[in-house]
Amino acid sequence: MQATPELHHFVRQTLGCGCPDSVFDSVRIDRAPLLPGGAQPAWWIEIGGRLLIAVCDDAPGLAARLPEVFDAARTRRDATGFNRFRLVVVVTPATDSAALERAFAPIGGADDRLHLHPIEPARLPPLTATETASV
Fold first, then answer.
1. How many CA atoms lie within 13 A of 99 on its CB side?
2. Domain count, the chain
3. pTM of the entire structure?
């Protein structure tokens, strides 16, 4: 499937991705655990074989699990040939975004192709699982 205008805007404007327009011709969205075998669900978005995004809700202890989350994501990114991985954490007023950023700092400093984006729910595009990976 192609990216919806809302998803295209989200990736370009909200996340700041500079991917070429052609990558948006191939989009796959699935719902699966954030970590293999884990209980916390996430939306997994694959864009053009270049950008891998996981969207999850903030959860207790998420900041402490970020090294594990990013290790698993790095493995998936590299094994499947994606250029970048972006973790979008949907924040609430109770979210300690500073703790997320502190936990991410050494991870992002070691790999500039990993990104963390704390985002308010209103800034998310509608997400629905797809079965078709490309047009």
1. 13
2. 1
3. 0.92
How many H helices and E strands in the chain? 3, 5
The continuous run of DSSP H or E covering 115 comes out as: strand 114-119
Extract the tokens encoding 66: 């970020």
Closest CA to 77 of 106, 100, 102, 45: 45
> Strand 41-47's sheet: what is its strand order?
27-33, 41-47, 51-57, 84-90, 114-119
Q: Judge whether 133 lies within some domain.
A: no
Can you give the C-alpha Rg of the chain in angstroms? 14
Residue 104 forms part of a structural domain: yes
In this prediction, what percent of the chain has a pLDDT beyond 90?
A: 81
In a domain, 37, yes or no: yes
Q: How do residues 60-108 score in pLDDT, each as one tens digit?
A: 999 999 999 999 999 999 999 999 999 999 999 999 999 999 999 999 9
12 within domain boundaries: yes
Question: What's the start-to-end Cα distance of the chain, in Å?
Answer: 5
Q: 100 to each of 64, 96, 123, how far by Cα in Å?
A: 8, 7, 18
